[in-house]
Design a protein that fits this description.
115 residues; four-stranded mixed beta sheet; 3 helices
Length: 115
């Protein structure tokens, strides 16, 4: 299973907070996508799952699946943006293919996909 390359990860708590506070949100019943421009020439992706998603094992599984689903899309996303993906409880009823399609649709709605 592929994961997001470490150079594309959003790691710092302050970066997550900046995207959550100032970024634009696009919601879906399974995932919320937040995005905010950064001063870099690359994108960074952060993944979060709260306790409403489930216990630690379920949250970690969901985060792994979301990282794997966004990996093939990274090269199609416009550079210079920080993205935070927040899992919602309904995501537990989905599979990797559904999550991949959902993320693509959310990125397209946000205008982040290169044509």
């Amino acid at each position: 299973m592929w994961t997001v390359n470490k150079r594309f990860r959003l790691k710092k708590s302050s970066d997550f907070q900046r995207v959550r506070r100032f970024g634009k949100a696009i919601a879906h019943p399974f995932v919320v996508l937040l995005h905010h421009p950064n001063d870099l020439d690359q994108i960074r992706v952060g993944v979060a799952a709260g306790k409403t998603v489930g216990k630690a094992v379920q949250r970690n599984r969901v985060k792994r699946v979301m990282r794997a689903a966004i990996q093939p899309l990274i090269e199609r996303i416009k550079p210079g943006c920080d993205i935070v993906l927040i899992a919602r409880p309904k995501i537990m009823n989905s599979n990797a293919n559904q999550i991949n399609e959902i993320l693509f649709k959310l990125l397209k709605r946000a205008g982040l996909i290169l044509e």
